[in-house]
Each structure stands twice: as structure tokens, then as C-alpha cells.
Specification:
About 70% of the residues lie in helices and about 0% in strands. The chain has helices at about 1-15, 20-25, 30-40, 40-55, 60-70, 80-85, 95-100, 120-140, 140-150, 155-165, 165-175, 185-210, 215-220, 225-235, 240-255, 265-290, 295-320, 330-355, 360-365, 365-380, 385-415.
Length: about 425
């Protein structure tokens, strides 16, 4: 890492005016925190320098590409003045940072190279949260198989994944917000969101597995991105861009290609899977339109999990379907499952929906079955057909299309 950092400094110095090179040279002796922030630019700088050397571009092209890698996602980025004004990085009026700002008029072709040093981009974070959530959800079948083998059924697993996550989620939420209190007026809305998203949806989906194959259930469940768009247009009166509609159509076609006609089909399982897609679509719309500054992020997730734990436990009791793990390893696996799926994945999904919206988050969530397919291929030697590969390509194309169009549109709006 040290060699890479030195290389980055040398490339930056060559790309800049001699007076700015002196500034960067002095940064090498600056505070360690500043060096750590600067090291975040290493991957981008290395990529740009390698490409420029390969294509024999000029150092000006290197500067453009280094900044351009971030500029394409610039809805919320902050350039060096914000960095300079930050209290923990203040070095005084004669600091190299201040000198760098004084000489901004001479950098011209460098295209504000310093913006790579500090960037805060909520849009990118939103997409990352949504994708990570989809990947974690896609890995659920891998753990669920072993949990079911220990005597746990679908309804009990929904209860355990919420209840066992409460302690860790409570600690994390308290450390973040310094309180676990919410206004009483917000509880009905939180309860409604919880019942649809973390209670009805998994119970309906897991129950459908008893009647139809998981691949078929996935096809029916993942109709929910289309339902999210329809609900947003009809009930929320929200204007949905044409690109979003096209992405939904691509996702729908791609998911349909996952269907295997040779698999057995039961109408009950199909209805349950469709119902799970509908309830999750309602959850996404409610979540993305929930606006309350006093209850957001982890605090909202914490109360959603509480309501989901209570409601799923009551369902277990009234239906007589409570079946707890029979071994210590089963309990440990349930605890891991609860932490990853509830504490991490649910929080990531909610953060993603809050930042980029429910429609885009639901589209990105179709990466979940692709993750499941890859896990099945790697861990269980399951066969991947050409239709599944084609469907995966369409899904990835749709998610890429919606992400690129969104960041480009946000860039134009800012300009």
C-alpha cells in the first residue's frame, strides 16, 4: 500500500503545475488522518494512470479521468472547500490546502483533481445499500436449508430472524441515535410497514415453497418491482421516468426466463408467491414515502423488527406452528441468519429506499435471485440453463440502465 501511495503522489505531481506539486509534496508530511483520506484516491488514480499509459494519453487526460471517475456520480459530491472547512482537517491559512485553493486558477486542465480527496455521495451510497441488501437476501436459501434440516419451519424462521436480531439491533441503534424512543403518533405507520414487509411477505413466500419449486416462486414473487411502479403511479400519483418503466419490463422478462416448465406447479403456491410480491410492493411504497425526521434509518428498522417479532410470534402460537431448533448449531445458525438478514439486509434496504426511492431499490433487488443461482451453482453444483443465463443478463442490464440513467439525470439537474 505504501508503494501504491508513493506512486499516486508522483503521478499527481506530474499532472499538476509545479507550484501545486509543492503543495502535494508537503501533504506527505501532514497529519496522518489527511494521509488516510488521500489514500482513498489510490484505486482511482492507479486505474487512470494504467489506462493512460496503455493508450499513451497525456497527463492532462490522466487528471481528467481521475476526476471523471467520480464526476459521473456527482449529485452530492463536495470538493475541497468542504474538506478545508472541516474542523479535524484544518491546518491554518498557510496550510498546503489553503495554498492549493489560492492557486486554483492555474490548474485548468486538472479539472479539480482535489475533489477526489473528499467526496460524500448519497446517491452512490443508496445504490450500494440496495445491491448489498439484494446479495444478502439472495444468500438466504443457503442458510435456510440447514436451518430447516434442524426442525425449524418457515413461520418459526420468520419469528426467529426478527427476535434474535433485536439485541444487536438495539445496541447499534442506541449507539447511533442515543435513544430508542419514538413519538407515539408514528407507531401506527411503523406497525403497518412492519406487518407488510417483515411479517406477511416472508410467511407467504416461505409457505409457497411447500407447494411449488423455489425457482417458480421466485418468478411470481419478483413481480413486485412492476407492482411498485404501478402503485406509485396509480395511488401515489408519482411520475415515473420512462427509463424506470423500461427497466421494470426488462426485469420482468429476465425473471420469467428463470422459470422451468418441467417443475411441478400448484395453484396454491402460485397464489401465495404472488401475494408475497404484492405485500412486499406495498411495503416498499409505504417505506419510500415514509417521511419522519425523528424516526429514520436504524431507529425505524428497530421498531419494524419489534412489530414483526410480535406479529410473527402470535401467528406461530395461534397456528401451532412454533418449531424451535433442536441443536446448539441450529441456534447459532439462526442467530447468524437473523443478524445478516434482519440487522444488516433490512437496514441496507431501508437506507437504499430512503436515498434512491422505492422503485429503483425494488429493481436493484432482482439481483437477489441471481445471487441465489450463483450460490446454488457454487455450493450445491446446481445446473444453470441458457435461459437462466439470458435472464440474468437482462436483469443485470436493467439494473445497470436504471443506475446510469439516474446518476446522469442528477448530474444534469445539478449543472
Amino acid at each position: 500500500m505504501r508503494a501504491y501511495t508513493e506512486m499516486t503522489f508522483r503521478l499527481m505531481m506530474r499532472a499538476c503545475h509545479p507550484r501545486i506539486s509543492t503543495c502535494f509534496q508537503s501533504l506527505r508530511n501532514a497529519d496522518a488522518n489527511f494521509i488516510l483520506v488521500l489514500m482513498r484516491t489510490v484505486p482511482t488514480a492507479l486505474w487512470a494512470s494504467t489506462h493512460c499509459l496503455k493508450e499513451r494519453h497525456s497527463v492532462q487526460a490522466f487528471a481528467r479521468m481521475t476526476f471523471g471517475a467520480w464526476q459521473s456520480f456527482d449529485e452530492y459530491y463536495n470538493i475541497l472547500p468542504d474538506f478545508y472547512m472541516s474542523g479535524c482537517f484544518y491546518y491554518g491559512d498557510h496550510s498546503p490546502v489553503f495554498t492549493f485553493l489560492e492557486n486554483r486558477d492555474i490548474i485548468n486542465d486538472v479539472f479539480y483533481l482535489e475533489s477526489c480527496i473528499y467526496m460524500k455521495n448519497k446517491l452512490i451510497k443508496g445504490y450500494i445499500f440496495a445491491v448489498l441488501s439484494a446479495i444478502i437476501y439472495g444468500s438466504m436459501p443457503l442458510m435456510a436449508r440447514h436451518i430447516y434440516a434442524d426442525g425449524v419451519n418457515a413461520v418459526t424462521l420468520v419469528f426467529l430472524r426478527n427476535a434474535l436480531a433485536l439485541p444487536s439491533l438495539a445496541i447499534i441503534t442506541f449507539l447511533k441515535h442515543r435513544t430508542l424512543k419514538v413519538p407515539l403518533a408514528t407507531l401506527p405507520k411503523i406497525g403497518l410497514i412492519s406487518i407488510f414487509g417483515c411479517c406477511f411477505t416472508p410467511i407467504l413466500l416461505f409457505s409457497s415453497y411447500s407447494f411449488i419449486a423455489t425457482g417458480t416462486a421466485t418468478v411470481f414473487h419478483f413481480i413486485y418491482p412492476s407492482l411498485v411502479v404501478l402503485i406509485s403511479i396509480i395511488f401515489v400519483k408519482k411520475k415515473v421516468p420512462f427509463v424506470t418503466i423500461m427497466s421494470v419490463m426488462l426485469c420482468f422478462v429476465g425473471i420469467c426466463l428463470f422459470y422451468d416448465p418441467s417443475e411441478s406447479f400448484d395453484i396454491k403456491g402460485g397464489i401465495l408467491a404472488l401475494a408475497s410480491g404484492l405485500t412486499f410492493a406495498i411495503y416498499v411504497v409505504l417505506l419510500s414515502n415514509y417521511k419522519n425526521n425523528s424516526v429514520n434509518g436504524l431507529l425505524l428498522c428497530f421498531y419494524i423488527v419489534i412489530v414483526s417479532s410480535i406479529s410473527s410470534f402470535l401467528i406461530c402460537i395461534f397456528t401451532g406452528s412454533l418449531a424451535l431448533p433442536q441443536t446448539l448449531s441450529g441456534w447459532l445458525l439462526c442467530g447468524l441468519f437473523a443478524f445478516l438478514v434482519t440487522t444488516v439486509a433490512v437496514a441496507f434496504f431501508q437506507l437504499g429506499a430512503a436515498i434512491i426511492g422505492g422503485e429503483k431499490t425494488s429493481i436493484l433487488s432482482v439481483l437477489e435471485p441471481i445471487t441465489g443461482i450463483l450460490i446454488g451453482f457454487i455450493a450445491f453444483d446446481e445446473r444453470i440453463s441458457l435461459s437462466v443465463i439470458a435472464g440474468s443478463v437482462l436483469v443485470i442490464a436493467a439494473t445497470t440502465l436504471i443506475a446510469i440513467s439516474d446518476v446522469r439525470r442528477s448530474s444534469k439537474n445539478k449543472q
